[in-house]
Each structure stands twice: as structure tokens, then as C-alpha cells.
What we know:
Gamma-glutamyltranspeptidase; transferase; EC 2.3.2.2; Ntn_hydrolases_N
Amino acid sequence: MSMTFDPLHHPHPSYRQPAYARRGMVATSQPLAAQAGLDILRQGGNAIDAAVAAAAALTVVEPCSNGIGGDAFALVWTGDRLHGLSGNGPAPASISIDALRERGHEAMPRLGAIPVTVPGAPAAWAELSSRFGRLGLDELLEPAASYAEQGFPVSPVAAYYWDRAFQSYGKQLSTENVAAWMETFAPHGRAPRAGELWASPAHAETLRSIGRSGARSFYEGELAERIHACIWERGGFLTAADLAAYAPEWVDPIHVRYRDFEVWEIPPSGQGLVALQALSILDGFEFRPEERLGAEAIHRQLEATKLAFADGLKHLTDPRHMKVAPEQLLSPEYAALRRGLIGPQAMMPEPGRPGGSGTVYLATADNEGNMVSFIQSNYMGFGSGIVVPGTGIALQNRGADFSLDPSHANALLAGKKTYHTIIPGFLTRGGGQPVGPFGVMGGYMQPQGHVQAVMNLVDYNLHPQAALDAPRWQWHEGLSVSVEPHFPADVAEALERMGHAVRREDGFGSFGRGQIILRDPATGVLCGGTDFRTDGIVAGF
């Protein structure tokens, strides 16, 4: 792959051209967040500063997909190497399978106080800022605080998901939780519409407190006490002690070689390993550009993805509790073994049941060579539905993925981190030359989106915008596959003849939303794309 793309090589004539810049670039799912990151670059901040600023802004301008009370992960290229940061929090110290069964639960609840785990995002912002940033955390969070305090016009896709959450939470949450959620996110008795102003002064106050204290107020101060009180009043398990004990973890990213590139992901408990295993299987096949939307090529991608998910859903959890090492699942020998199972007809593995999500992904780069792949989530839309009164903090429901079966790899255990869906990606070449950050948000769609984006870039030589705009498929379970409205009808019919149960979706909502930034090693020019399935832009200068 080179930076020389055919600008007319688009999968659909309405798709946009990529963006180019030299001094800095920020690609996010919401324009105001991208501008917040770009402003930080213009003020002398680096790509790490810009990522933190954009991430904080996204908790305000796209609260239907992430929040202060969620988790975050980052891959950071700086100092001629790639660093990984896991900002995911564990289950509370007082929770247990027995405690939930005594309350009559046969499965982990999806909403409410019980599935709330320790939020890692604020600590991740502070850690990135203190280790690699140039500006103070308070400066980085001020654009987000200003949006929250002064209000901003809601963007169209955010308004759509905001309303979906309003309809859903109103039916599923308790009266107490509905009231707190409505007060913050639907003060007029409905979700804000596209173009309407929404503000959250309490959210602004919380962000400024996090900025002044380096996030300690969230984990040890007044905010921690308010979170504790809120959860315990609602029958949850998270305490101030759980918050005080938390710190994000620097980790060694994992990777596989794919063609002439290295594809990097965060290690478990994240599901990036699923994407890597699928790509490792696919590396044994040849994919020519003219076959990009061919049924045989997509059939192989689907089969490799199913095999990788079958392993991931069985084995992935907190690495301290995994019985199979990631290296075993990513070995060339195991990839060859799994590849040998792929035949001309769709097969039926034994996976779990992938579901929905609420996540934001962003990518940043500067003219010093720093690049960041960052992802942040409250999980299912606004998360648990719990809003800490007077703070703007919507708490995640990441614990919903725990199993109450003690024999399951992802069984609930105090202090354990659950299987995690959100994953940032990064490409290098030649054993260490940075190519750039990429990501596709969207629950269990994320590894599948990573596979498709990487293949579009590497095998089919598409530029970042075309790589994101290309028609996507999504495997759900068994033989069930869905495709987007603009997916070729003849290819879908051919896949059905191969045994796949294909359904065409009416919209694009379940197929993920991504961003990509690539750097030309010869000139330093940045080339970025942002998904047409969201409100995002690529901001550069």
C-alpha cells in the first residue's frame, strides 16, 4: 500500500474524498469534538493532548455513545514505538455470583446499578496527559467543559441514537433512574432534536474538577463519594474504595503480520485478538483488488471471522483468568489449522450471541510523528441508565457481559475485568515504521470492522475514506449474516447459495462507525477518512 490512491476509485459515487493535512489531524465521529482536538494542536499540544481533548468533548457532544463514567483504551505511537493503555475498570470488590443469585438473578442484569464497573476513562485521560502530553489536563478538558456549560447544537446521527435511548430507557429503567436520566439528558421530556441546543452545566463542573485534580476527584474526592452513594442507594455494589483502588494499566500491544504490515491491538480482555486471529487465518489466502466484492472473498472473510469469534467468546476474559494464552490463538500453526476448516459452504461454529453497543472512536496525528488510536464507551448507548445526580456522569454497564455460570471463562468475580468489546487498532510496516491508527466502533461489529478496514487498505489499496465507505457485512451467530443497503444484491444471493443466511438491513446503524489516519513516510503528509455512517469529520491543518 502506498499513499498514491486513485481518487476516483470509490465504491459508490456519493462517497467523499479523503482529507489531507501536514501539521496535524483529528478524526472523530462528531465535528465539534474534532475541532476541539484541532484547537489543542494549534495551541501547541501534541497528538496525545488532542486525543484527550477530543475524547472529553465526545462525552458532551455525543453522550448517547460514551461518557465520563465509561472505559477507554489507547494505542499511542510516540518515541519510535507503540504503547498500549488499558483504561478498563474491574468488577466491584463486594460483588459475586452468589450475591446475585441470592437476589434472584439467573443472568447478569443489563441495566441499573448492578452491572456498573469501575469507570476507567477519566484515569486514562489523566495518564495519557501526564506521561506523553504537553499541556495541562485542565486545558485539555476546557473545550469539553465549555460545550457543556454554554450548550451546543446536537448533530443528526447523535440525535437519532439519543432518541432511541430515550424510548428504550423510559420503558426499562426504574422510576428513580428514569427521573435522574431525564433531568440530565431529556430535560424537556424528550430527546433533543438535530440542531437543537443542549447544555449540561453539571457536566462542565465535573470535567473541570477532573482537570484540576488530574482525575483524583473522580476516584478519591467528592465525585467518588457521590458515585458511591448513588450506586448503593440503587442496590449496586460499586464503592468509593473500588474507585480509590483503580489505576489504568500500560500494556504491551499484541499483533500479527498481515501481508507486508503488522496489525496491532490491545491485549485481552479486549476482543482485538478476534480481529488478529481472523486476519492471521486470512493471510493464507490471496485477495485480488478486482475480487473485493466477490462472493468467494467475502465468504472466506465470514468464515475466518466466525472461527475467530468462536475462540474469542470461549476464551477471552481478564488475562489473569485466561486458561489459553493469546500467543496460542495467534500462532501461525493454529491459524493454518483453523484455515483448513474453511470450505466452499458456510459452517456452523458454536459462538455466543453478539449484541449492540455505544462507543466512540477517534484518531489523531501531529507533525512530530505522534499518532493516537483511541476508543471510549459507556457500552450500551448511555450505559447502565444510572446518572449520578448533579454531575452529568452517566455510568457504564460493562459488567453486563459477565456470566453467572462459574465454569464460564468470563464468569463474574470480584475485582475481575470482563470481556471487553472496544478496541483501537494501529498499522505498522517493515517491523516498526508507523503507518497509522484505525478503528471501527460498534460492539461485536468491531473486530469485523477491523478485518474489513485492514483488507480494504492492504489488499485492495483503497484510501482511508473509501476503505470506510465500502459496503460492510456483519456476522451475528450461526449462519446469520446481515449486509448494508448498498451491498451488491448478486453477491448477497451468491452468499446465500453458499449456505449463509443473509438479510439486508434498511439502515447503517449496526455496521459500526470508523476513522482512519495514515502517514506518508516520505513526506509526512497525513491522509484521513471518517465514516459516512456518523456525524464525523476529519479536521486538519
